Amino acid sequence: MESRISLCMIVKDEEQNIRRCLQSVAGTVDEIIVVDTGSTDGTCQIAREFGALVHSFPWNDNFSDARNASLELATGDWILFLDADEELAGESREVLRRLANEKNVEGYFIKIINYVGNEGWVETCPDLVFRLFKNRKDYRFRGAIHEQIADVILERNSQARYQIAEDLVILHYGYLDRQIKAKDKKNRNLALLSQELNRNPDNRHLRYHYGVELYRAERFDEAAAELVRAANGIDPNTIYLPKLLRYIVLAYHAARKPEQALEIVQLGLGLFPNYADLYYYGGLISYEQKDYGRAYEFFQKALSMPEQPAHYAPFGGTRGFRSLYQLGQLAEVFLNHEEAMRYYILSLRDNPHFTPALESITRLLKPQEDPVYTKKCLEQLCEFCTPQANLLMGQILFRQSAYKLALEYLERGMDQQEAAPEILLWKAICLIQLRRYLEALRILEGFGPDHRLYPLAKLNKILCFWFQGKRRKVRPLVEELFALGLSQDTGAVVSLLQNYPGRRRGPGVTLGDEGMSLLLDILMRALDLGEKERAESLLDGLSRECLSKNARAVGQLFYRYGHLKTAEYYLGLYLEANPECPETLFTLAEIKERQNACIEAGELYRRALALDPAEPRYYVSLIRLYEKMRREILREAIDKYPELPVLRRLFEEANQEI
């Protein structure tokens, strides 16, 4: 005779989740017990549609009491308990029935896949949980929160034997951002855990969960202290110790205590030498500390690790795409773009949905400069067979100001599905940047005054006419935009547009971060259109102090678009007030090198290097400059003394080294 399985649940206001959960077990479990702790939505009605026995239970801030109320009503031989934001994976139904017929097992640890993040980018994190056990009267949950029953069963039955249900999988959606926000889980859990710890201060497991909740609440110093307290003196065989160590590393890292974090990484690897996550986070922290050699070793070790045990709760990709991506970042630090590209491609192949790798590949292809080559490479790497894929590529290219290619991918995606308002706005901006103003205006007119994107649409309508030099069209639109109620910063930028091409009168405008960010975006778009004079006219309206403070960002923009002399002026202006900025010196050195002023470039590289000797780019650029100078000197010497074979040999050796 087959064993009967009772699904036991506790719920409250779960109408968004419970149907998915119950559908996943329909026809697999023999009865459904739902204990409701005060729902005001359609949760109970949905449960009854699936034949559930629904029982009301007054919530008393104790999860165990509610769970035990469900066990009292269960009549099956086995108990499976799920939360409403979980579901049984489709391939696990037959496995569940088979496991329930095992005679010599008292309970099972089950693999759970936690989905974390948001709908735009969701990660998976596996773990092991104890969710299936035999139904006996003396097996009852203990603990007000993060309630436990596995230990209780062993206390009641010292001969009890547990197994890991290898092929049984639960999917958990409760860590998605929208779920956490909707239920205020962080604050609820912190309050309950604090109360429970006051009653049981020596309970390590509670303290571990309390530290985790503090970390999720971004109280990082407190989290690290609680997690360290939970770890001190712990049995090394404790099943959650790997996760505990990882959270200590994360808490110290977030609290900006890298030395302590790396100390825990080394301690943890002494206990768990195959723990890929610790190698990965060790690499991240070393990278941030500019200990690049150590970071490289950590990431390479992460890649070499074997399949991770489920109780490590490994973060997806530490043995693959994440570490490969970070190795690409390291290669870029050393200006080795070919090696960086190789790692980014490997990262994308390991996880085709890992957008950071795709963004980095696209950036290295320089889509602004060579859209044809970029498109050819992207089409070889990726399959753009869905609207989502095309729209994502369009968005990436849009962010990188490659407007012509961005428009192509956006339109491809829009042909296949209805476009969201943001995508329509991106398309309009791309059209403006291609000087297709009438088409852009038709899209912008579609945003009515009540639309949340109306102010942005109105601003871009102004830019449409401003780029064309139609001042009479600009002024009434500016007045309409002011009528919406702009911030002081945004209003100041819009006034600069309105006053073009007038010169500064008085002290000029001083912008904050918001205004300067908007102005830099308009400058970039003007330079992208070849409107250098318009860009400079806007800068004429700034106060000297504001311009000096932001001159580095302005100079880098002009450098990006090949205006070397103008870039040099603004970077020099920034350097007057900030003479020890190595990044500014480095960019000036690059400009001088492009102007073939190699001696000045070398001096600037050396000054940058003296200020920041931990930055590899300065070394690499200086080495390349000296190699270039050496080849040029050798070429001059050969022209003067063609009969000397030693010079010819030196020249050939120099070219072979390239």
Automatic annotation (TrEMBL):
The keyword Transferase applies. Pfam families: ANAPC3, Glycos_transf_2, TPR_16. The keyword Transferase applies. SUPFAM superfamilies: Nucleotide-diphospho-sugar transferases (SSF53448), TPR-like (SSF48452). TPR repeats lie at residues 276-309. Gene3D superfamilies: Spore Coat Polysaccharide Biosynthesis Protein SpsA, Chain A, Tetratricopeptide repeat domain. SMART domains: TPR (SM00028). One of its GO terms (molecular function) is transferase activity. Residues 6-125 form the Glycosyltransferase 2-like domain. It comes from the Bacteria. Keywords: TPR repeat, Transferase. This is Glycosyltransferase involved in cell wall bisynthesis. The lineage of its organism: Bacteria, Bacillati, Bacillota, Clostridia, Eubacteriales.
